[in-house]
Amino acid sequence: MSTETAVSPEPAHVQRKALFQHLLLPLDGSDLSLRAFGMGLELAGTFGAKVLALHVVPPFNSIAYMAEVLAAAELSYSQQAVQSASRYLDKAKALAKAAGVPCQCHYAFGERPHQAILEAVNEHRCDLIVMATHGWHGLNRLMLGSETQKVLLQSKIPVLVCR
């Protein structure tokens, strides 16, 4: 006895929603983050999604003495940090343009990059984070922490981690 299963095609006017529509791609300027950005662009292209490139700039930290000297140093640091962020994001914008993927670029100052990433997810309604991990172990991980690990633990949306 043979059974046939009829598959009824969806009507032409019914469109399926893509699995992911807005990807957050954090960049720290490293080769690893650029590689993860490239993978995120490929995914976005596959899903017809848009991307948000985000660079989190750590704030200037100092001991508060010699206020005038420190204020000048902080201003110089901030200007250089914004220039670096702009370079990273300009590169991201060019890569996205070449891939034909719509891309917004933002930078944010923050002591805790994972929090800035999670805030951007909520603010921009992203539905997937694609980010790199440096794969630190031992003392480096203990001293520097893992922002990727913190994002994984606290994110309410899927996170794709690239190495």
Automatic annotation (TrEMBL):
Q: Which InterPro entries match?
A: Rossmann-like_a/b/a_fold, Universal_stress_UspA, UspA
Q: Which organism is it from?
A: Rhodanobacter terrae
Query: In terms of domain of life, where is this protein from?
Result: Bacteria
The residues covered by the UspA domain are 20-163
Q: Which Gene3D superfamilies match?
A: HUPs
Signal sequence: where? none
CDD domains, alphabetically? USP-like
Record's family?
Answer: Belongs to the universal stress protein A family.
Name-wise, this protein is Universal stress protein
Q: Name one Pfam family in it.
A: Usp
